[in-house]
Each structure stands twice: as structure tokens, then as C-alpha cells.
Amino acid sequence: MAVPRRSELNSFSLLLLLVQVCFLCLSCSSSSVAIATGNGGGYTINGRVKIPGLMAKGFGLPVKANNAKVILNGGQHVTFLKPDGYFSFHNVPAGTHLIEVDAIGYLFSPVRVDVSARNPGKVQAALTETRRGLNELVFEPLREEHYYEVREPFNVMSIVKSPMGLMIGFMVVVVFLMPKLVENMDPEEIRKAQEEMRNQGVPSIANLMPGSGRSN
Amino acid sequence: MAMAIKLSLLLLVISCSLIPTFSLFEDQVGFMDWHQRYIGKVKDAVFHTQKAGRKRVVVSTEENVIASLDLRRGEIFWRHVLGATDVIDKIDIALGKYVITLSSEGSILRAWNLPDGQMVWESFLSGSKSSKALLTIPANLKLDLDSPIFVYGGTCLYAISSIDGEILWKKDFINEGMDVHQLILSEGSNVIHAVGVFDLSEFNTYEIDVKNGGVLKHVRKSFPGGIYGNILSISSEKFVALDATRSIVLLISITDGQISLQQTHVSDLIHGVSLNPLILPSKLSGIFSLTTDTFIAFIKVTHEGKLEVMEKVDKTVVVSDALALSDGEQAFALVQHGDSKIHLSVRLVHDMSSNHLKETVKMDHERGFVHKIFINNYVRTDRSHGFRALIVMEDHSLLLLQQGEIVWSRDDGLASVIDVTTSELPVEKVGVSVAKVEDSLFEWLKGHMLKLKGTLMLATPDEIAIIQKIKLQSSEKSKMTRDHNGFRRLLIVLTKSRKLFALHSGDGHIVWSTLLQSLRQSDECPNPTGLKLHPWQIPHHHALDKNPSVLVVGRCGLSLSSPSTLSVVDTYTGKEARNVGPGHSTVQVIPLPFSDSSEQQLHLLIDDENRVHLYPRSREAVEIFQRESQNVYWYDVEAEVGILRGYGVKRRCDGDEYCFEARNLWSVVFPSESEKIISTVSRKGNEVVHTQAKVIADEDVMYKYISKNILFVATVSPKASGPIGSATPDESLLVVHLVDTITGRILHRMSHLGSQGPVHAVLSENWVVYHYFNLRAHRYEMSVIEIYDQSRAENKDVLKLIVGKHNLTTPVSSYSRPEVSTKSQSYFFTHSVKAISVTSTAKGITSKHLLIGTIADQVLALDKRFVDPRRSLNPTQAEKEEGLLPLTDTLPIIPQSYVTHAFKVEGLRGIETIPAKLESTTLVFAYGVDLFFTRLAPSRTYDSLTEDFNYALLLLTIVALVVAIFVTWVLSERKDLQEKWR
């Protein structure tokens, strides 16, 4: 397997490491792999970030992925992605570490990485969010993050449902349906109501509404 | 209308019962928020102007940013903020398309694509031990090699391919024990010279084959006098250095493999006394410059090896590096500061006597002195050389000068905010002209008609653009007067550049900026830094003719015992009203809740000998203070030794009326072998709590223990105080304490086994939320502790509460030792955290949201209801009605509740919240390398119409109603008439 590693020390023994915590195999055929190499005090962690639909294009990455960062132990080391999505941390002491990926627009689960001192080159990785083991140190976003609410397309109902829409609707009912109702009413009743109104005097704007309401 | 009101009330109730998020629509960006991008004080700059097309300058800064700027306008093309431990040493451009950065003391070499900032390759250079870092990129090396870059770092010399970062060869100097000072590539040869010093007293030079790193030649010469500082090369055969006593200039020349030494006394050279001479690194050929305390001398080295002083200039003159021009000529620039202007002159090395170019540029007084200059040339149409200069000023701003004018400027001092406070704007003057009102009314109506069109989807794309513009540029937003809702404020910002800025909260423009005189570098105050910013005078009731002002506390030096300076700055004009020169030291600044008759806030400054200094220094202030001094307490945290101490006022100092001595009241000593203090947090002084009672399900009441004097202290076992991965779960223990700072009583203590720091916490009302790392689960966790007052628990009788027969009005005293009970709960949280804050509102009625600054430099708003210790897996019906959420093990991250939405506040350091006058709303200011400001309504704006509210639609409805009334009236009249005729 081709190992994308640039190291000046030839004496390193490269140990490829496939530790399976659980057997949820990822269906990716990439050659990315986590390697830890003894180097005096420190080890190297290599990995890859895969953002579907972005990294495949190769060099000219969209601006979105341009500013992606990989962070070890909450800011102890910060590194950036190469055009193919690979990254590496150098001079990492043995122990259990946490790697986070910061790419705006995507949510990544932090990954727990164990760098073993006893058998150099052994790396164990697991997603901390889902506790799923990784046989390769490949980061894939849990989900895309949309920071904005999607504005709903224009809807007649939304206007009708708004307080003003309801008011206009009510008016329409009063103006157009009420006369129809009045027409269908018993002429006796209407006369009675009109008499009543006459007793009250000429309908003014102020008492028109309740007046017409009473005639109902 | 009543119906409509009812309906809207109903809608309000519905919307309140949901979990509110600060969701924004994409077209609302920039409506009530602003985001500003900065880079910090420029350390180094490389121009890229050779080819046609975009002209850029690549800079590295003290905020550890590498950025590519547009040379025409000063805008940022791209920018990367490197890790805090990964300090940039050198930058350069290779192959005309890659930006090369060398960082981490020469151990990490990266190449960035110049157009878009994508990292192309990265090489790790493992050195044996730390040394200085050098980077040399040959301009045109005639070799079949793939364009090597030469890097010296960690005592090794590397040749690295600039195409893919592959290491071609490596030469380790650890065995030679040599410290390399210079790498010299002579033009046209295949040899690189590594010049250095062994054991500070032996000069060494190695000639190394650029193809394979083999040593071709090695010459050395020891001089017993020793060497001070760096060796500087004049040419590939001549070098200069200072001897260890700094009184002799050594000229080292190599001829045919033989080294000859020549010593010249500095005093002979420059005739007269010269203190602290230094050789300046510059890339001038045949010339070097020597600085003393008073002047800079340019000294020419002749072919015969004679030193000649060519010119002496004042020490304040800033000299640029040499710039190679096309015809083998070299140029450099000098900048001299005059009265409110600067004089820029460019000289050619071959003709030092006259200025090639001399320009005078008007310069804002508030920018201070010039600190750095970088020059670049261009060829004018008449084939002569034109020069542009990039200058870095004392206030960290960056300016481009060309043809005697400032082409653009960047206020990059704002990238290093130390402290933030706010100030009110002036009250609007009454009496507005009628014409203005009519005009604005018409404009207003037009705007709303457009908006209406927008909502009805009738607007054309052009009109939509206009609507967006109206929204963004609303003149209301950036008005310089106080508004009814308290949204418009002045953000007063103290920066590391010792400059005080006032930003308008509406659109973020700089209202004024002042380079503080009290923090100016001087003999008395050699290394001034800003410390704190406090509101000093807030005229509200009295002294209304005065402007509000802020107090700036600074310190002359890094140690706690260095003297401090104070100044009072008027927030309307930015003028320094008063300043007190270096006096006593300042360890702590305590604003007291008292003010004098002119509404100046009383402040206590505690010095390193535990004396208390009272400000303002007036008789009245002393009287007020002495009246209240029995109730003044403070504490300090000695994190190194693990001790908390509480103090009270004892008596006056001898001889100083405004100074008091402290008496130690209590101490809490943490055992140093098991507990190390890593974090302490107290409540914000200006926080308002609406009610002490909390009504829970079953109409029960719980009483919050509300005290301003709670201190949250987190300690870890000493082994676990390092970074993550350095300790095993078994040896790490995190203990959190809630301490009463009046009595020293520990109210609550809780330990988290297998957990470690860093701890970020926020304390508000009666609760504390803290973020830490759980090593067993290997995830971050957030815990909440709520503290309740048990002594008031029997006040449950509602009747008593109504009648007033309860003990709620009895004063709360720390000395009464009330019974307290606590509740706590922990949850997982996905991200690392850089800062935590909490929203604050004017009356404290609105529910709270936590503002979490994540490692990705975003600010996430998290409803406090998610961190409620009373959450359970299956809440009862009553609890559900109360709004209690079912328990989950992880806190949710809802993308829409990022208050920074699609922006990043690079290098986030702090989040400040400021209550607006409108109870529902809080103002949020997040700062780091970038600045971000927005307005939040944690429970939505229940007390005002949103700015999206369409007045035009309302007007239209009313008009429609009136028209309808008339129509119906007319119709009914007509019908009446017809009836009558019948």
C-alpha cells in the first residue's frame, strides 16, 4: 500500500496497522491509513479527511474546504489539509489523543487516537461520538451543517393566515357574503330590522359594523 | 383588531413553547450583525508583483497569521491562523506560485498555493535541538534539481524540493557544535555557505555542495574576544560581528581559504560615546548599519577592508531591508517621523549621498511612530523605478504608501483585543427640521412598499437588491445617538497596541481611536501593556453635562510588581481627560458599587503588597469608602501555590490619605500534592437577577442561593495538569469547589474521577456550568451545578408571600451561613471549547442561553434548559408542562443556533454580552483575531415588533378596511334609498 509519508529518516520501520475495534468496515478503497512512527521521543499520526463531493475534484478545492483545520488535543497542534485531504501530526508523544476536524459547514466527530509506546507504530482510532472504531484514520463528516433557516416559498395561505389577511378575509365576508345572506332572509325579518335601525337613526360609520351585525 | 391581537398572542404562546433558536435566514445576514477580519501586527512581508494580474503582498503577523493581501485595496485574499505553539519564523515565495512558511523554530515547512491559500505540501524537519531558523530560497539556481529551498533549523541544514516538499539532503551540524547564523548562496555557483559560530568564540564557514550536501571546504578561525549577537555577511567573503564586550567591530574576510581578522573600535569608528551598539540585520551589499542608543550609522566596507562611516541618522529613523533592483542596483528606504507627517526617502546603495526619492506623507497623529517598513519597486512608464512602501505603525496598523499618498490602511490593532466595555451614545437633540421628516417619511414608505412587494414575491431581482441594501444600510443603525431600545452603543476596546478604539455597535465602524499617552513607551515606563478597562463615569441622574468616561489601567512591564498607569478617557470624544503616571503596582482592580456626586464610580486598586488604593482621589470618595469599608471584601487567588485568601480593610496607610492596609480574613489552602488550581470564575458584577424564587412543577417553589460572592475554583491533580494524553484516567482527578469569598466557606465540593482540564466555566445567578475533559470516555463533558437556599424553603405558603409575611426581605448575609443544597448533572459535549459566556438582559427576566466559543472559532448558543440538573429520562406530565426536557447524554448542536452563522471569529479569545434596554434582547461581542457583533433574543423578541415587520402591509390593511367601510356604507345607503322608493 502506498504510504503518503514524507520523512527524512530512512531507518524508520513503517508499520501499517489495521486495528479493528468493531468490524464495521468502511466501504472506501482509498489508501489512507494511520501510521505512527517512532522518532526519538515523538510519533507521527497520518490521516485523511474526506468530504464527499469536494475532495474528489483534486487540486482546485472550493473555498469552503480551503480553511479546514485539523486540531490535536484541543489546540496543542494545528495542521492543515493537503489538496488530497491528507494531514499529519509530527512529534506526538505516546498516549491517547483527541483529533478534531474544523471545516465550516460540516460536523465531524472528534476521533480518539491511541499511540502505543510499547509496540511502536500501533495506532488505534475510534469516533468518540458514535464509539465506532476506525480501521483507517479517515474522517468523514457526520452531517452537513446549514446555518440558515430555509425561507419557505411564497404561499397564499401564509398571507391569508396572517392577522391582516384574516382581517381582510373578514371584511370580504361582510361586504360580499352578507348582502347575499340578507337577500335570502325573510322579508318580514328584514323590515323588522330596518325599523329597528330607523329608530336608532341614520347609520353612521361608527355604528355601521355592529348594525350590519345585528341585521344578521 | 382585537381578534388579531388575540391571534398574535396565541402565536406568541405557541412560539414560546418551542425551543427558541437564533435561526436566521440567509438574507438577514448583516442585518443586525457585523463581522470584521483582521490579521494583527505585521512581522514580515513579501511582495508578489512580478507578473501581470493581481498584485499581492504576503504577510506574517504577531497573531500568528499568514495572509495574502490585495496590494491595491488592502483586502484579505486568504488567511490562515496557525496554532499557538506553531510560531511563524520566516516566510518567502518560491517558484512564483507558492508561499513558503517556516514555523515552530524551523521544524515545520509548509507551502501554500499563492492564489487561493490551499496548503500544497508540508514537511516536518526533525531537529536534534532547537536553534534559530533560517530560510533561503534561491532566485535562479541553474541546476537539474527540482528548485531546492534551503532551511536551517534544529541545528540541521536541509535542501527541500519546492515542488513537493521532499527532503533532498540533510546536513547535521550537531557534531560540529556550530550555531549557524547565515546561509549565503552566491550567484551562479553551486555552493551554499553556512556561516556560524562555535562556542561563541570560533568563526566557522562551511562550503556545501547544493546538489548533495557534501562539505567542500571548511575554514575556521577563533578569536578570544568572543562574539556578541549575530554575524552579518557583507558579501560571500566578508563578514562583520561585534565582540563580546560590544566595543569592537570585527571584520572577517576570507581570501583563498584564509581568514583574516580586523578589529576596529566602535568609538574610533563613530567618534564619541555610544551605548549598546548593535549590528542591524539588513541585506545591503557592502554596507552594514550599526545602531546605538542615539543614532544609526551606515558603514561601508571597502575592498581593501576599510570601514568608512557614510552617514549617521537619528535612532528614530526606521530602515527597510535592501531591495534588489533589476540592474544589480540595491535600494532601501528610510522613514523619519515628523510632526503629524512622515518623511519617506528611498536611497540607492551605490549612491548613498542623495535621495533617489523623497516623499512626505501626512500621517494621523493617533497612529504613533513607524515601527517597520517594507519596500517594493515597480517600473514606471518612463522606465524609471517607482517605489511603494508598506509601513507598520505603532498602533499595529498597516499602510501602503505610493507617490506620497496613503493608498490604503488597515487597523490591525483590533486583532489583539485585551478588554471590552461599552458606553452609551449621546442623547438625540430635539428639534428636527420638517423637511427632513417629510423626506424620511416618504423614503420610509417607499422602503416599506418595496418590502411589501418583496413579501408578495412581486419584486424584480433589482428591487430585491434594493430591499437588501435598504435593510443593510439603514441609517437608523449607525446613527450617533442613543436609541430607545439600547441597541446602539459604543464598544470601547482596549488592544495590545496600546490603542483604545470606540466601535459603533450598529455597523462596527471606528468612531474614534486614541493612542493612550499613559501607555506610551518611555524611560519611566519601558514596557507598557494595557490591563483592564472599566466604566469610570456614567452620568445618568446627576452630572448630566459631563460625558461618560472609561478608566484604563496599564502596567509598565510584565511582572506583577511593576508600576501601573491610569488614564481616564472621554467616550464621546476619545480624549484622554486625565492620566496618572507610573505609580504603585496593580494586581487587581475592583469596581465598587458606589459612585460620588459627579457619578464617578469608586474603584479599588490592589497592589502587590496588599495595599488598597482608592480612586477617584477625592475627599468625597474617601468619605463614601470609609462609611462602607466594613462591607468591602475581596480575595485573591495564588494559583502557583494553591492558596485563596480573603481580605478586608484594616486601616489607613501612613502618609497617604487614599491608601488603606488590608487584613487577611481567611485562607483556603489546597494540598499541593493533590490539587492544583487551573481555573477560577466568579459572577459578573453587573448581572441582574429578576427573582430568587423558581417555581417548579406541582406549584412548588425553590429558592435560588443568589450571592455575588461565589467563586468557582477548579483544581486537578498535578499529573493531569498537562495536555490531553499526558495522564492516564487513574491518575487524574478534577475537583470543583464553590467558595464564598466573604467567609472562605466552601459551599460545595465535587470531584470528577478520571477527568482533567482545561476547564472553562461560567457562573451566573445560582448556577455554574463548566466544560472539561473526561479521560475515561475520552470525550469532553459539561457539568452544571445549581445551588439552592434551604433556609427559605419553608416559605412556600403563597398566602404568606402575598401578605408579605415571609423572610424574603431579610437581608442575605454570608455570615448567617445559610443551609444550601445543590443539584448537578453532566452531559457530553462534542467540541473543545475556547470560551464560555452567558447572555445577560436588562432585568434578568428573559431566559438564558450559554454562548460557547468552540474550537472551530464559532459561537454556539445553547439554551440553559439543556443544562438543567432536574432533567430526567422520563419527565412527568407536570415537569413537561414546566418546560423540562427529557435527559439525553449529549448536548445537542443545532447548526441554526450558531450565532456566528457561516462566519468564523478566527483566534476566538472572548465573548462579551451586554444587555440592551429592551428586556428581550442582549448584545453579543465576540473577539479574537476577528471581531463579531450581533444581537440576540434568547426567548425571541416578545416585547417589540421585529424589524421584519411590514408596516406597509399593516397600512394597506387599514386602508382596505376603511375603503371597505365606505363602500359598504355607500351600498347600504343606496339600498336604503331603493327600499324607500319601493
UniProtKB/TrEMBL annotation, chain A:
SUPFAM superfamilies: Starch-binding domain-like. It comes from Lactuca virosa. Residues 65-167 form the ER membrane protein complex subunit 7 beta-sandwich domain. It is a single-pass membrane protein. PANTHER family: ER MEMBRANE PROTEIN COMPLEX SUBUNIT 7. Its main location: membrane. One of its GO terms (cellular component) is EMC complex. It is found in: Membrane. The chain crosses the membrane at residues 164-182. Belongs to the EMC7 family. Keywords: Membrane, Signal, Transmembrane, Transmembrane helix. One of its GO terms (molecular function) is carbohydrate binding. Residues 1-30 form the signal peptide. This is ER membrane protein complex subunit 7 beta-sandwich domain-containing protein. It comes from the Eukaryota.
Automatic annotation (TrEMBL), chain B:
It comes from the Eukaryota. Its main location: endoplasmic reticulum. One of its GO terms (biological process) is protein folding in endoplasmic reticulum. Residues 764-981 form the ER membrane protein complex subunit 1 C-terminal domain. It is found in: Endoplasmic reticulum membrane. GO terms for cellular component: EMC complex. The keyword Disulfide bond does not apply. Residues 24-412 form the EMC1 first beta-propeller domain. It is a single-pass type I membrane protein. Keywords: Endoplasmic reticulum, Glycoprotein, Membrane, Signal, Transmembrane, Transmembrane helix. InterPro entries: Beta-prop_EMC1_1st, EMC1, EMC1_C, Quinoprotein_ADH-like_sf, WD40/YVTN_repeat-like_dom_sf. Component of the ER membrane protein complex (EMC). This is ER membrane protein complex subunit 1. It comes from Lactuca virosa.
